[in-house]
Amino acid sequence: MRSIHNTVVIESREKRQLLNLTESLREAVNAAGVGNGFVGIFSQHTTASVFISECQAALTDDIVAFLSDVVAEGKPYKHNSPEYSDCDRKNATAHLRALILGQSVLLPVVDGKPVLGQFQSLMFAEFDGPRQRAIHVQVLGD
Amino acid sequence: MRSIHNTVVIESREKRQLLNLTESLREAVNAAGVGNGFVGIFSQHTTASVFISECQAALTDDIVAFLSDVVAEGKPYKHNSPEYSDCDRKNATAHLRALILGQSVLLPVVDGKPVLGQFQSLMFAEFDGPRQRAIHVQVLGD
Amino acid sequence: MRSIHNTVVIESREKRQLLNLTESLREAVNAAGVGNGFVGIFSQHTTASVFISECQAALTDDIVAFLSDVVAEGKPYKHNSPEYSDCDRKNATAHLRALILGQSVLLPVVDGKPVLGQFQSLMFAEFDGPRQRAIHVQVLGD
Questions:
Q1: How far apart are CA C52 and CA C119, in angstroms?
Q2: Are A129 and A47 in contact (CB under 8 A)?
Q3: Could you read off the pLDDT of A93-136 as tens digits, one per residue?
Q4: Residue among A58, A66, A102 whose CB faces B102 most closely
Q5: Of A111, C10, C53, C84, which has fewest CB within 10 angstroms of its CB?
Q6: What residues have CB less than 8 Å from A57, skipping those under 6 apart?
Q7: Cα nearest neighbour of C53 on chain A
Q8: Contact status, residue C24 vs residue C8, Cβ threshold 8 Å
Q9: pTM
């Protein structure tokens, strides 16, 4: 049984940005040398997510638009108010959008490779960029 | 340490349909012969989810109604527009609804059985049926 | 390879309440004596969640307000109707809010400790309290 981990570093370039991490994931799993088990992918941030989706520009635009709609700007968020919060970044909406998509993904590893369906990609979502972000990838198996 | 996987095939019969997978899960975990560890249940599709909920017809109707409400039909989704997307299935809402419920569930395995609370069931959600769907079940432990 | 589990019991005191479980998690992982692997944290309930967030009072208020907004009271939920449901607790909104945040969290364990980013905490969310709640914590690794 082996537990191997490493970190994928991402430099986001926009306030809101979705990126495809599938190739980085395949490389990390391959480098771990684990045949069968699980791989966990963990955003180390509360305003950036990892999730599974089809990677198509039209669809990722729809995902960003949906999250912008359901978590609207301009509401009286306490996290953005000096009266309640000493956080300089007025990023309550980034927290709430990241909460909806989640901050970890688990995938099976079979024969040394992560298992994804035909249209599934591992995606990264930045909600409060541009920033440097760290994604922890850990493989457990034999 | 063992890593055992198999596939549960589902034939959904409706456009939107919630099904209880708990019995299939118990059978898969029992067949794996793993005493203690984790079981992961992974939808191989971007428009079908797995999640944990109470399985009651009134509640599953409420879940479908909630998702239909928060992800409304009739918005100008790019994924549904020939201008932006070459996808024949106009299924942007199915993608967004599946994103909210998620595409994997992790559960503990103790004494050869998946651990669920008294009112918890493993549920499958079809958002773009009817179709044949594959659910990957993987057990890791000893 | 070891699989160690125990239960964290929570006494919620309000109808809706968010609590920080990070210290309980660190103690459970430390007690398990596993060096490297995964820890899973599982709510055993369909109306209480576990999730990752920054733990700041202003932000947790924003999370509760957001969920109260997106899952509105006063809609004709079947789960709350004697015509469709024999459930005495009229708690459809609690189910739907718990569904959005999710009922499990997976984290890596490295050198005997759960891995969390600088601003990440493990949070518990009660949506139908006050009640006694059980959180199953399971560590798998070596």
A1: 10
A2: no
A3: 999 999 999 999 999 999 999 999 999 999 999 999 999 999 99
A4: A102
A5: A111
A6: B78, B84
A7: A46
A8: yes
A9: 0.97
